[in-house]
Amino acid sequence: MLIYIVRHGQTMANKERILQGWKDYPLIENGRDAAAVAGQKMRDIRFDECISSPLMRAKETAQIILRESGNDIGIIEDARLKEMNFGDYEMTSLDTTYELKQFFEDPLSCDPFPNGENVRMVMKRTQEFLRELIARDDGKTYLVATHGCALRAMLNFLYEDKNDYWHGQVPPNCCVNIIEAVGGKAKLIAEDMVW
Questions:
Q1: How much is the pTM?
Q2: What is the rounded CA–CA span in Å between residue 171 and residue 152?
Q3: What does the pLDDT look like over 63-98, one tens digit per residue?
Q4: Which entry of 16, 60, 68, 83 is annotated as an active-site residue?
Q5: Catalytic: which of 8, 117, 147, 167?
Q6: Which end of the chain is more exposed for a tag (fewer CB within 10 A), N or C?
Q7: What are residue 162's phi and psi, to 5 degrees?
Q8: What angle do CA 109, 112, 113 make, to 5 degrees?
Q9: Where in the chain are the domains?
């Protein structure tokens, strides 16, 4: 069983360093181009199923990858794959507040954002999704489209150092992580690949 997990392509909010969270933005041209390149690089892969966050930027990324890789399958939405809800901090510049500085320096100790979530809440829902998928143990190949913070939250239990939440960096736009799962046991075989 193989699971390809991709972070969405670039949006205007990414480009302008603005926190999106659950706000819904489409990809910009650069984001669509990166998704197309990723899809072209995956032309030899036959995906059995595609599961995406319901947010537009993730779904659009998945659509482009499926089209460019020659996979004519639909997309199943799962709300557990949504980005972290930053509540009152959504649409805030990433460079302006102490709370966001703390979030990037020590996310595991942060309280929930007002009217939003914290990292541990995102880990709970995204890991529930991934563990359910791994438990299928069906030998299929999956494409999963999600977001930066959600991706790190989902993969945290597979990282060697679980206290290094960001795993060295925020995942780049359109990066691909690959999980191989056999008998309900999973391991990362590729991390943050960008073409």
A1: 0.96
A2: 8
A3: 999 999 999 999 999 999 999 999 999 999 887 776
A4: 83
A5: 8
A6: C
A7: -70, -15
A8: 120
A9: 2-193
Q: Which three-class secondary structure state does DSSP give residue 55?
A: coil
Six-digit token pair at 31? 């984001």
Judged against a pLDDT cut of 90, whether residue 99 lies above it is answered with no
List the alpha helices (DSSP H) in the chain.
12-15, 29-41, 56-69, 98-105, 119-136, 148-155
CA distance 4 to 180: 9
Q: Tell me if the domain spanning 2-193 has CATH number 3.30.160.40.
A: no
Tokens of 170: 């925020």
Return the SS3 of 12. helix
Catalytic residue status for 167: no
Is 8 an annotated catalytic residue? yes
- Could you tell me what percent of the chain has a pLDDT over 90? 92
- Region 29-50: mean pLDDT is 98
